[in-house]
């Protein structure tokens, strides 16, 4: 996505930083005594990691979470001094840069821990680490098989003050189904992993497990810190309960052209839609190169001129068409069509595309320019 703001962009994602702040305040309430680590991986779920981080920290978030060292370094380069954890690394990662920038490093294997230790020795600074234990997601995280070995190495490194153990954490597989029995299985395994570390004389400052869904539904999972991502952006991970969250992203475009189409004429490639009667249509200058996925063709609405308007014909690379009927409300060139935001919602796209709203907000790209509102200091 283009980073620079141009005047009068035809296609935009408008990011409401007041909504981010509002959502963080809601999450702080659910977190109780636990701190809130706001997850800004994937460039802040495509909302802009730096701007979201600033707004979230101002609203009381305690820490930031990202995937890679590179993402963490970008936040540091923007002047953000809050604690930052990055958790998807490998033994080749530039841990020296992370140590030098005071970034907490998530480790998922003995090999990664050794690489972190080497970087600490090289830079002459103690590395801050968080051990990510795999409690059943079977993705990232230290496997059961390697955990004891990792603790042995870690104990020696902590004694030498090469490494500082800040946290032990894990990630849930079924958090969006709060009553799923696997949540309790993972919670128990997590407690066992913390207890085993203690037997090795290792006591982290913090332990954490909850993503957005667990933060909102499982207070018994809050521990010392919660790690919400999607809810910060105003999208609920639990169907039929919005928890008062406000969507922060509005994907919108300016109508490029309004024209008449006569009965019997086809619209867009392959004439998948034939006008049943004379009608008026609007051309929206956003296509699949901008994140309007072609699979939506003919099935989605935009909000335009005070009503829902159905897309007709195929979505193209750069544009699509919507039907205005008799255009009683007088839609004109330059009017704003909302593709998703509060209405229609990102969830509607997710339902149409058989995916989740997380992927929908990551879709805008190409010519879409990001613009921020709210968050005034
Ligand atoms: C992405 C992620 C989160 C946030 O998950 P949400 O479902 O967006 O709240 C938390 N922890 C880890 C380890 C993650 O990878």
Short structural description:
By secondary structure, the protein is α/β, with parallel strands linked by helices. It contains eleven helices and 19 strands.
What does this structure look like?
The chain is built from 11 helices and 19 strands. It has 377 residues and is of the alpha/beta class. It folds into 2 domains: 202 residues, Alpha-Beta Barrel (TIM Barrel), CATH 3.20.20.10; 125 residues, Beta Barrel (Lyase, Ornithine Decarboxylase, Chain A, domain 1), CATH 2.40.37. The strands form 4 sheets. It has an 8-stranded parallel β-barrel with strand order 2-3-4-5-6-7-8-9, surrounded by 6 helices. It has a 5-stranded antiparallel beta sheet with strand order 11-14-17-16-15, with no helix packed on it. A 4-stranded mixed beta sheet has the order 18-10-1-19. The longest helix has 19 residues. The chain is elongated. The protein starts with 10 loop residues before the first strand and ends with a strand. The structure holds pyridoxal-5'-phosphate. The site of pyridoxal-5'-phosphate (PLP) has 11 residues, from loops.
Keywords:
TIM Barrel; binds pyridoxal-5'-phosphate; five-stranded antiparallel β-sheet; alpha/beta; 377 residues; Lyase, Ornithine Decarboxylase, Chain A, domain 1
């Amino acid at each position: 996505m283009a980073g620079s703001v141009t005047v009068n962009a035809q296609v935009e994602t408008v990011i409401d930083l007041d909504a981010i702040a509002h959502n963080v305040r809601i999450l702080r309430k659910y977190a109780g005594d636990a701190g809130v680590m706001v997850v800004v991986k994937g460039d802040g779920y495509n909302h802009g990691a730096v701007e979201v981080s600033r707004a979230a920290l101002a609203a009381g978030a305690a820490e930031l979470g990202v995937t890679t060292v590179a993402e963490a370094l970008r936040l540091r380069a923007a002047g953000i001094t809050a604690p930052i954890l990055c958790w998807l690394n490998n033994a080749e990662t530039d841990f020296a840069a992370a140590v030098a920038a005071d970034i907490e490093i998530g480790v998922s294997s003995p090999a990664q821990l050794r690489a972190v230790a080497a970087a600490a020795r090289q830079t002459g600074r103690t590395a801050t680490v968080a051990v990510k234990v795999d409690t059943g997601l079977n993705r990232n995280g230290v496997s059961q098989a390697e955990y004891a070995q990792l603790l042995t190495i870690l104990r020696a490194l902590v004694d030498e003050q090469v490494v500082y153990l800040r946290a032990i954490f894990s990630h849930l597989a079924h958090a969006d189904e709060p009553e799923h029995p696997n949540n309790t299985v993972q919670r128990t395994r997590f407690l066992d992993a913390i207890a085993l570390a203690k037997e090795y004389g290792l006591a982290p400052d913090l332990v954490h497990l909850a993503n957005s869904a667990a933060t909102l539904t499982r207070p018994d999972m809050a521990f010392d810190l919660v790690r919400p991502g999607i809810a910060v952006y105003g999208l609920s991970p639990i169907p039929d309960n919005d928890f008062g969250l406000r969507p922060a992203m509005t994907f919108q475009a300016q109508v490029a052209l309004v024209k008449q189409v006569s009965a019997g004429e086809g619209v867009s490639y392959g004439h998948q839609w034939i006008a049943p009667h004379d009608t008026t249509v609007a051309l929206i200058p956003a296509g699949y190169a901008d994140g309007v996925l072609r699979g939506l063709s003919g099935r989605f609405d935009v909000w335009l001129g005070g009503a829902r308007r159905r897309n007709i014909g195929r979505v193209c690379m750069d544009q699509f068409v919507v039907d205005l009927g008799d255009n009683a409300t007088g839609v004109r060139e330059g009017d704003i069509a909302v593709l998703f935001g509060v209405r229609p919602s990102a969830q509607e796209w997710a339902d149409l595309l058989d995916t989740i709203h997380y992927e929908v907000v990551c879709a805008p790209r190409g010519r879409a320019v990001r613009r921020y509102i709210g968050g005034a200091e």
